[in-house]
Amino acid sequence: MIIALRFFSDRRRWNIWWVIGGVAFIFLTVSFYPAIKDQTAFNDFYKDLPEGAKALIGAAGGIELNSPAGYLQSNMFAQLFPIALLIFGIAGGARAIAGAEDDGTLELMLSNPVTRFRLAVERYLSAVAMTLGLGLVLTGALIALSAPFDLLTEGVSALDVLGAGLAATCFGIFHLSLAFVVGAAGGGRSRAFAVSAAVGVGGFILFGIVSGGAIEAARFVTPWWWYLSRNLLAQGLPPESIYVPIALSALLGAVGVWRFRLRDLR
């Protein structure tokens, strides 16, 4: 696993700053909860929004936004967690092969006694491990910081938060895998990032349209529906939020490795 460890080492400062920024944002967000938890006007502001708009901000399902489940869903699991893990994952997936090819280090690595298969697999798994690590660290920080601000009460347990954090991490890994396969196929880092980001943004828009009652047959096309179709804390974890992105990520990773092995790198 030398290649994987080297990839992790090259990105250690990137990882550290993401952790620091994420934890700081979590602390800032949860610390505001005591100030709004008794404000009924907070719910009145959102109750007349269209269902599609409510879904986009994590306010669907009739869960009051000043409740622990509503507050964590709308501020953490509909915003910070999926967006942060999506961006972090895409950056890692695009960097794994395409980034190394763009900056000329890929040829240097392949000049050593290492196969393309091993290089692609280890760098992909390293990117996945870093995304998983960030997800677990942010989830752990949220659990630790929520308790002092009365957010782990009224039916919201640490296990509920852990499950929601895992779903958000799987969401990020799917987009990572998409960026990886585009980059491994020779698309370049910019294209790998752009394609995966377009899927993320386009899926978010489609999720809002579907949640509003239009073209409902397309709901399973968007990764946001797998992840955000219900309040993860109050209504439970939908199985598709874990199994679908993990299965598709494994498939995309395998395709990326296969395509990289067949390419003419000249």
Which key features would you list for this structure?
0% strand, globular, mainly alpha, 266 residues
Low-confidence stretches: none
How would you sum up the global shape?
Answer: globular
Q: How many strand elements?
A: 0
First and last CA, distance? 26 Å
Number of domains: 1
Fraction of residues in β-strands:
under 5%
Protein model, in words:
The chain has 266 residues and is an all-alpha fold. The chain has one domain. The chain is built from eleven helices and no strands. It has helices at 2-10, 12-30, 33-36, 41-47, 51-56, 68-102, 105-110, 116-146, 158-211, 223-228, 240-262. The chain is globular. The relative contact order is 0.16. The mean pLDDT is 86.
List the helices and strands and how they pair.
Blueprint: H1 2-10, H2 12-30, H3 33-36, H4 41-47, H5 51-56, H6 68-102, H7 105-110, H8 116-146, H9 158-211, H10 223-228, H11 240-262
Summarize the structure.
This protein has helices at residues 2-10, 12-30, 33-36, 41-47, 51-56, 68-102, 105-110, 116-146, 158-211, 223-228, 240-262.
